[in-house]
Amino acid sequence: MLPTSAIIVLVLSVVLGALYKPLDSNSSFATQKPREWAVTSKNILLVTAHPDDETMFFAPTILALQRKSNMSLYHLCLSNGDAEGLGETRWKELQSSLDILGIPPTRRWLVNHPQLRDNQTASWDADVIAKSLEPYVLDLKIDTILTFDQDGVSSHPNHKSIPEGVKALATRISVTPPRLYTLISVSLPLKYISVLSVPLTKVDIYSSFFTQRLELLVIRVLGTWYPELLKPSIPRNPDANGMPTFISGYEEYLKALQAMKAHKSQLVWFRYLYVAFSRYMWVNSYSQVRYTQ
């Protein structure tokens, strides 16, 4: 049996090794139906509620998508975070943060509608959100929207209101609505496992990669005997319908920390604990939300 010290060294080696490089899975948000071509994202709109959301919750996604030359990422913040009278300060901090994360001024906007004020206890009206999103979605030809899920990660009512607003948008516009992907809220213990979330999620991704490739290999081999059944005219995207996941390496994490430092007005003691221990500084996973008719 290995001594305790050897086990500790082994675990640390695995964790540190996992932090070396970023990794993503289905980063194009590919979906595919039988006998149809895969659908992938080209123009993506990240919608957040307040300044600092982009760093505290979505930094792994932003930094990963900036490396994709075939996709354009835009950011829309619905409120200037004026709950404490710091709206102008927080807007300036948001701009500095987005400069660090790599979203240029021509691809980022603040809505700040009077009915979309930062409020810890009130939800936002879905129709107001939909009307605010509509011109950006239409003008930019947005095909994918990323935002919080129905639990809002932190249970903030403003966060939880956004996906309802996107659903309302889908009923307003005459064109095909953008696909909606929401950031998966995890349980409290999983939320604060910090760097341990990286190797655990990478194991999940590599397991999925192996299963997908093995399945394709089996189909290819069997297709030599039953070509009319197992060789479809439309090729299958190996990533299609997989969970979109983005994992930062240590360099990306340090950049996210730098971006968070731009939000000087928000750096109270509990946010230092958050950036040190939160899974969302390292890992983002998404679920597609289907619109109901």
From TrEMBL:
<keyword id="KW-0732">Signal</keyword>
<dbReference type="Pfam" id="PF02585">
    <property type="entry name" value="PIG-L"/>
</dbReference>
<dbReference type="GO" id="GO:0016020">
    <property type="term" value="C:membrane"/>
</dbReference>
<feature type="signal peptide">
    <location>
        <begin position="1"/>
        <end position="17"/>
    </location>
</feature>
<dbReference type="InterPro" id="IPR024078">
    <property type="entry name" value="LmbE-like_dom_sf"/>
</dbReference>
<comment type="similarity">
    <text>Belongs to the PIGL family.</text>
</comment>
<dbReference type="GO" id="GO:0000225">
    <property type="term" value="F:N-acetylglucosaminylphosphatidylinositol deacetylase activity"/>
</dbReference>
<dbReference type="GO" id="GO:0005783">
    <property type="term" value="C:endoplasmic reticulum"/>
</dbReference>
<protein>
    <recommendedName>
        <fullName>N-acetylglucosaminylphosphatidylinositol deacetylase</fullName>
        <ecNumber>3.5.1.89</ecNumber>
    </recommendedName>
</protein>
<dbReference type="GO" id="GO:0006506">
    <property type="term" value="P:GPI anchor biosynthetic process"/>
</dbReference>
<dbReference type="InterPro" id="IPR003737">
    <property type="entry name" value="GlcNAc_PI_deacetylase-related"/>
</dbReference>
